Sequence to fold (241 residues):
Amino acid sequence: MNNTPIRLLIHGASGRMGQALLRLAAEDSSLQVVAAVVRKPPAQRVVDGIPHFAASELAGAPPFDVAIDFSLPEGFDPILALCLERGVGFVSGTTGISEAQQAALSAASQRIALVWATNFSLGVAVLAGLVERAAAALSGWDCDIVESHHVHKKDAPSGTAITLGEAAEQGGAAPRFASLRAGDIIGEHFVQFTGLGERVELVHRATNRDIFARGALHVARQLKAQAPGQYRVRDLVGKPD
Ligand code: NAD
Fold:
């Protein structure tokens, strides 16, 4: 068994997700964070033994095996370009990326192993499958997806709602979306199928951001051994680390 830790670069390290990734990776001896990247030049260059870099200094990052990106769409292109240049894995949870950025991901997957997902939780991977099945079985029913998040979330509908909508479409439904921004809600996705005189409701509630960080770290561990290609979270969950 190979005990060499997987070297990670965390992009968006000062954010809510970045902080959770740094904390959980520090508890795991199979992972070693070798670089933390934040938007502006960092106040401290080394924090808890981890070198910190500004986004403008990306080219100077030390060698790494996989980058994990939870930043904003404007930070997405440079970190994908760096992974391509270095020929290493790319895991991104950044939501609200453009169609051009989606196309760049698809092109990059010819050369590196990567996962871009709107939600890294196991529960949402399962929910997407349930939504597709319900949509296929409930032909002609209305399908509505209501998502709720904290007031700081910029994109709407959420990337997860869009992913669930795609699952509903695959099952033959035509989903409609509604978004709520309130307080400190981490993330709720409610999918309702309405027929005449009855309703089916499917819901996922995230109560702790760690579920996304844990899922992204699990995917990063799995990705290092994968051939180039674009993988889904559901391709890589359920496999032991
Ligand atoms: P946040 O605002 O707390 O943090 C954003 C981070 O990105 C900060 O560290 C900031 O310095 C960095 N950043 C901003 N612009 C940058 C740039 N141009 N270059 C490099 N870094 C830059 O946000 P958050 O709540 O941590 O969420 C980050 C992203 O992850 C969002 O897109 C959010 O929607 C998404 N998210 C995805 C999942 C998932 O499971 N896929 C879960 C939660 C959040």
